[in-house]
């Protein structure tokens, strides 16, 4: 089966999920992002790579935060940006999404950034679009959020360049996370020898070991001597369900505090995809502390999105 | 009485409705749009004609789709675009619309794109604005939606250039359509010899024959040997009223299927202003079929809107 | 205590309130705004002063009108503008505002325009941001709305340049106004010898005399021989409370009519910050009359905001 993310020549065509991306393309994105880190620090933070291109942020699910990152990235590339908040409640049928997309293609849009509550929405759209259109998945249900996964990997590489000697712990709601799975895939692809997941059984997928990770239910054991601690966001709605007793209880067992962080290596870095629930999955002292690279993640997120957009725009083959 | 759409010298000043536009101006818009069709296919889809101008999309009624077409057109002309969604429920008095408009004029806005649920709103605003301001009606109640009418005519001319030898059928809810009336006017002005309307009596205006059309209630008879089939959108709310029995019944009588389309000329084109109710006024096999020019309509819609904006911006006389 | 609005060298760093601005900086803003008045009248209304800068309009409280003025000003300076409507109801904790802001800083935003229902919000954010970020208060609760105050002073200076010989009356709800206090401060700082406030006792702060103004409860007495009449907007919600009997009664006592205006100097100008309640605090005949400079205020508002933004962007010291 051919890979819907790649052109016939094996170049990046859409960014739908990290799964299925060859190592060479992962490294191409990360290396290209390096060159955009500097752009954000210039006096004039603009490059003309997407001038005259139309980037449509089609958000079937509202997310001001994510939309802003893509809007800033596209504008720094000099693209024209159109924001569309599409109320899915007004859509009676699946075809209507395609009609919306077809209309924008007919208006000569060049790139779609898609956010949708349903898993697979971005793939569905990518399979449908004309050959010259590029699609970026900005989060589809529980499935994937590849630019988040990429910016996390980019951040790790920046702080811990020797990826073949890392021990990384991913902590929290792996089950419902759209980034954890992608990250595990990216990290193992890039040669990280040891990836751990730390979570209660109720927040882990059944087959999690098959992803090549070590499973811990005890945070103290799991954090021991790691180089990187990647916290996951706990969705508030999980609290009301049967999966978890309470936010206080969760924080006690799986919240990251200075005490628990002391079990990791002294130079370990702390990551979080945001937005944080301070006092639920992470203590403010850690979030704002010296080992936190949470805000650099955001900074690198712009560079990574600019890299993805510019690579997609440059690969004009079908 | 002088024409509010024209300058003293007879040039286009505002675009409020197709009625009242001389044939020469209709052709000027269509010919200018031709030159913009190519711009959308370029690598850099921008021309500097409106650079430094401020275009305000003032939408008193929400329509992401229509707003997007004007926003893309204005940005391709290099204008600065300001989107304003004005909640009319917060407006107690008629003057408040004018206060809103006066404020934007005072901010040196150059062009207003107005969408309003009330017929006549764009005319009302155009009568009020300062002489150097240009107004485009993007849909006012049941009254008019002239750029839609123009893009329809433009599409017909592109596919069937010899307009003096055409037979065109307009099918559906002519009564509530803001484009049907404009289209009939444009088509007869441009010399189309035979325009038919096909609809149940409940969806036709009383005086429809006076517009110079032939009336059909039977779709099989009406479609016979036509060159162009223009379908109209059926508003869902009509279904609940006394005007129509049901969506199924409507589709059976007035929905366009491959079988009915076979009655038209073999090279007949099928048009629809969108968004489509698939399975209500049009079958998906027709909408996505070889004779459909529904997506080219959308493409030409950008070119027509760029043409209108650039002509208005260029006519600086009062 | 050091002034949070000024750099170590005494230059403008943030614009949070007119209180605390030295006379020299007030005059710098007003003089710079003069140079931008002309830009709005050019064919191409753009200058490249903020090219490549990212301006974020963060509106925790919705205000299309105010947002539009800042968006137009920033775009005329060639900035990239990102609009964020942040629903404060979704924010459980104070830190979340700072997390939102920290994220935008990490994305290399350069300037924040902040609107918030709570007094002090812009100060709170300004104290928190990195040294190279600039903050403009676009209205925080009852506290301040400094660009409105500045545009009012700019308008007065344009029509009545000899500010040392003016008698100015501010009429209406001084108690709840976020501009009245700033304006009084600015006017006395710039040497206006006589500032009057005219209002019922229920709409005046207790300590109003301490601001250096003369207090009138009778409008006929207060308007006598003034050069400038500055009307304040009466919030509709005041009407329902115990502070005022009714809109009709208020208009009778404190609404500005042609008759009352005749008591002022023959060349007196009439101002209003908008949006107006016609027939409540001001009669339409006056609002649209020859002495009204209400729309020029809006025009100058763009020039003043461009001036503030360009001065802030130019002062790169900490």
TrEMBL record, chains A, B, C:
GO BP annotation list: 'de novo' pyrimidine nucleobase biosynthetic process; 'de novo' UMP biosynthetic process; amino acid metabolic process
Pathway(s) this gene product operates in, as recorded in its UniProt entry: Pyrimidine metabolism; UMP biosynthesis via de novo pathway; (S)-dihydroorotate from bicarbonate: step 2/3
Enzymatic reactions: carbamoyl phosphate + L-aspartate = N-carbamoyl-L-aspartate + phosphate + H(+)
Pfam family membership, one: OTCace_N
Annotated keywords: Pyrimidine biosynthesis, Transferase
Residues annotated as domain Aspartate/ornithine carbamoyltransferase Asp/Orn-binding: 165-311
An annotated Gene Ontology molecular function: aspartate carbamoyltransferase activity
Family: Belongs to the aspartate/ornithine carbamoyltransferase superfamily. ATCase family.
PANTHER family listed in its UniProt record: ASPARTATE CARBAMOYLTRANSFERASE (PTHR45753:SF6), ORNITHINE CARBAMOYLTRANSFERASE, MITOCHONDRIAL (PTHR45753)
Official protein name in the record: Aspartate carbamoyltransferase
The species this protein was found in: Novimethylophilus kurashikiensis
Gene that encodes the chain: pyrB
């Amino acid at each position: 089966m051919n890979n819907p993310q790649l052109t016939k020549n094996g170049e990046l065509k859409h960014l739908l999920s990290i799964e299925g991306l060859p190592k060479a393309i992962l490294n191409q994105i990360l290396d290209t992002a390096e060159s955009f880190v500097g752009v954000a620090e210039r006096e004039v933070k603009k490059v003309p790579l997407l001038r005259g291109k139309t980037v449509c942020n089609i958000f079937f699910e509202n997310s001001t935060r994510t939309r802003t990152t893509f809007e800033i990235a596209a504008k720094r590339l000099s693209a024209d940006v159109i924001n569309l908040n599409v109320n899915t409640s007004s859509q009676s049928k699946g075809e209507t999404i395609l009609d919306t997309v077809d209309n924008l293609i007919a208006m000569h849009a060049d790139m779609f950034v898609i956010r949708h509550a349903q898993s697979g929405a971005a793939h569905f759209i990518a399979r449908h679009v004309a050959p010259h259109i590029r699609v970026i998945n900005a989060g589809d249900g529980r499935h994937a959020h590849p630019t988040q996964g990429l910016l996390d990997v980019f951040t790790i590489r920046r702080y811990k360049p020797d990826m073949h000697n890392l021990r990384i712990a991913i902590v929290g709601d792996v089950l419902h996370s759209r980034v954890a799975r992608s990250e595990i895939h990216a990290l193992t692809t890039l040669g990280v020898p040891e990836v751990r997941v730390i979570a209660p059984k109720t927040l882990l997928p059944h087959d999690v070991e098959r992803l090549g990770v070590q499973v811990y239910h005890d945070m103290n054991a799991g954090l021991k001597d790691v180089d990187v601690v990647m916290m996951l966001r706990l969705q508030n709605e999980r609290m009301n369900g049967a999966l978890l007793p309470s936010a206080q209880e969760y924080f006690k067992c799986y919240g990251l505090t200075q005490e628990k962080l002391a079990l990791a290596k002294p130079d370990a870095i702390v990551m979080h995809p945001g937005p944080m629930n301070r006092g639920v999955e992470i203590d403010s002292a850690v979030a704002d502390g010296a080992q936190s690279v949470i805000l650099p993640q955001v900074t690198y997120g712009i560079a990574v999105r600019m890299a993805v957009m510019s690579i997609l725009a440059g690969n004009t083959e079908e």
